[in-house]
């Protein structure tokens, strides 16, 4: 008797694997959904910076930090679960959400939040990828082992996200009478723009997003131009 | 600190901002620059590796396709492939082995799936290897056995590389060549499943040419003692049901369903062939050859 075309054991083996895969995805979806809720809330609170004068930032950022705490907790949960499986198999499911979570932390810190005893928060503080990893207490840029981590791309894309938000804030801060902040934002965005020029980009999503930074640069430069034209740039900021 | 900057009046400038005031036009250095330089190196490493894998992958794809074309010149299912075809395949496999060995150190652990998209060649390789296995044994090779073959290929490639050019090995990682410890390329479930999907297309082509040129449905050796050897029509039906019964993959539904549809068409085509053979084939005298081969078989043969 010739062997059959397909070994029945092969079918069972593959079927089991596909079923496992499906249940992993379901569980991941739940965690990512939870993260989504926390990120959306935090982003919502952060959107109030556009109508909040700088003197009231501490209260607002306190609320943002509450949201970030929840994000951190959920990322921890995600990290624990996802580390059981090959990272790049499911990474695409959460990468957007992680980028958004990183953005909220970066923006909060830049505005003067996320301070600690050793390092008090201050405006214009840019958290590095290492800071972000430490904050979420997950590894970064892992190469030697296969576990959950935050990638270089996720950090950079998260950073680009806040540029748009800050360029909007430059305008709104002027409306609120805080011209100094607009100048600070302008210099920060220009620094970042120069920084992104240092990268050798390939034709991918990062390249596309980096290309969009120039519009933010233009927007803040216009604001600073309007201010300087009318001699509205505060002396302290001008000396920078 | 060699000195300080002065303003127009000649007074020393206070330098506390994140960047120097007079910006040089070319490379602007600022507080962010070191951070970005570090990240650039990380990204470059990633892009370079992806390019290297991509190049090898394209070559492996081309070689696999050539193997498939060679196999399509086979006319019957038999343990022994015709000599010149076997020689041809061996040659190509040796090349593939070298390419696999060259990228093996790059696709270990976490990097295996990171570069999965650059490694589409493996799907093609699975297609070629499963097809070769089918043409020889009339069975579908299973995932584990196939993985072993590919791993052996990668090891062979590394070994031959060492012999051929002992000091020209590109990767330092290859130097400690402890035979069994050599890095290999693994075959994922997706590589296997999508490769087998493509196998159905090749089987359809094989069935069509074989039945057109030999006037018989491709089937196993009649020496297998069964009164009627299993034909490729049954095998296609088996494969078809195999895929239909598998649960839907939640990962990439669109790709999966597209492959499923193509496979169904192949099954239908072979089905039609089987029907033709049964209904019309019996009316044809033995040795009658259909139009397709009329160029190399003169009419008068009848």
UniProtKB/TrEMBL annotation, chain A:
GO cellular component, one term: cytoplasm
InterPro entries: Translin (IPR033956), Translin_C (IPR016069), Translin_fam (IPR002848), Translin_N (IPR016068), Translin_sf (IPR036081)
Chain ranges passing through the membrane: none
Annotated GO biological process: RNA metabolic process
Keyword RNA-binding found: yes
Gene Ontology MF annotations: RNA binding; sequence-specific DNA binding; single-stranded DNA binding
Compartments where found: Cytoplasm; Nucleus
Pfam families: Translin
Entry annotated with the keyword RNA-binding: yes
PANTHER family hit by this protein: TRANSLIN AND TRANSLIN ASSOCIATED PROTEIN X
UniProt family annotation: Belongs to the translin family.
Protein name: Translin
Automatic annotation (TrEMBL), chain B:
TM segment ranges: none
Protein name in the entry: Translin family-domain-containing protein
Species, as recorded: Cercophora scortea
Primary localisation category: cytoplasm
Domain of life: Eukaryota
Feature: compositional bias, Basic and acidic residues: 1-17
Keyword field: Cytoplasm, Nucleus
Subcellular location: Cytoplasm; Nucleus
Region named Disordered: 1-27, 160-179
């Amino acid at each position: 008797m010739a062997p059959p075309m397909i070994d029945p054991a092969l079918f069972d083996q593959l079927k089991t694997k596909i079923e496992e895969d499906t249940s992993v995805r379901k569980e991941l979806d739940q965690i990512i959904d939870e993260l989504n809720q926390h990120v959306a809330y935090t982003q919502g609170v952060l959107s109030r910076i556009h109508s909040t004068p700088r003197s009231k930032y501490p209260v607002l950022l306190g609320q943002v930090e509450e949201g970030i705490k929840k994000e951190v907790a959920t990322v921890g949960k995600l990290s624990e679960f996802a580390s059981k499986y090959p990272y790049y198999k499911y990474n695409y499911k959460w990468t957007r959400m992680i980028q958004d979570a990183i953005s909220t932390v970066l923006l909060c810190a830049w505005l003067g939040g996320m301070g600690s005893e050793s390092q008090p928060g201050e405006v214009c503080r840019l958290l590095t990828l290492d800071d972000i990893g430490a904050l979420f207490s997950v590894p970064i840029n892992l190469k030697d082992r296969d576990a959950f981590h935050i990638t270089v791309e996720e950090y950079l894309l998260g950073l680009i996200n806040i540029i748009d938000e800050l360029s909007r804030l430059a305008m709104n801060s002027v409306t609120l009478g805080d011209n100094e902040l607009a100048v600070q934002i302008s210099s920060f965005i220009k620094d970042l723009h120069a920084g992104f020029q240092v990268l050798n980009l390939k034709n991918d999503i990062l390249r596309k997003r980096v290309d969009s930074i120039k519009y933010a640069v233009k927007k803040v430069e216009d604001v600073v131009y309007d201010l300087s034209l009318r001699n509205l740039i505060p002396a302290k900021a001008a000396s920078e | 600190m060699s000195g300080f900057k002065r303003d127009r009046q000649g007074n020393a400038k206070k330098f506390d901002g994140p960047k120097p005031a007079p910006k040089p036009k070319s490379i602007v250095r600022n507080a962010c620059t070191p951070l970005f330089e570090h990240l650039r190196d990380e990204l470059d490493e990633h892009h370079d590796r992806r390019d290297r894998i991509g190049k090898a992958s394209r070559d492996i794809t081309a070689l696999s396709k050539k193997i498939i074309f060679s196999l399509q010149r086979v006319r019957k299912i038999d343990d022994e492939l015709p000599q010149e075809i076997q020689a041809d395949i061996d040659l190509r496999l040796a090349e593939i082995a070298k390419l696999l060995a060259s990228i093996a150190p790059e696709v270990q652990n976490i990097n295996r799936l990171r570069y999965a998209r650059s490694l589409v060649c493996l799907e093609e390789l699975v297609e070629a290897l499963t097809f070769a296995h089918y043409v020889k044994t009339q069975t579908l090779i299973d995932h584990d056995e196939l993985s072993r073959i590919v791993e052996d290929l990668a090891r062979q490639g590394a070994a031959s590389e060492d012999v051929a050019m002992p000091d020209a090995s590109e990767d330092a990682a290859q130097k400690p060549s402890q035979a069994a410890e050599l890095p290999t390329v693994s075959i994922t479930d997706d590589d296997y499943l999508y490769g087998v999907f493509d196998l159905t297309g090749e089987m359809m082509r094989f069935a069509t040419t074989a039945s057109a040129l030999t006037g018989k449905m491709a089937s196993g050796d009649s020496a297998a003692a069964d009164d009627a050897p299993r034909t490729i029509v049954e095998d296609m039906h088996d494969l078809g049901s195999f895929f239909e019964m598998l649960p839907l993959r939640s990962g990439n539904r669109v790709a999966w369903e597209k492959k499923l549809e193509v496979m169904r068409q192949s099954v239908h085509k072979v089905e039609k062939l089987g029907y033709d053979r049964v209904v019309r084939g019996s009316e044809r005298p033995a040795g009658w050859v259909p139009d397709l081969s009329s160029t190399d078989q003169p009419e008068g043969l009848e």
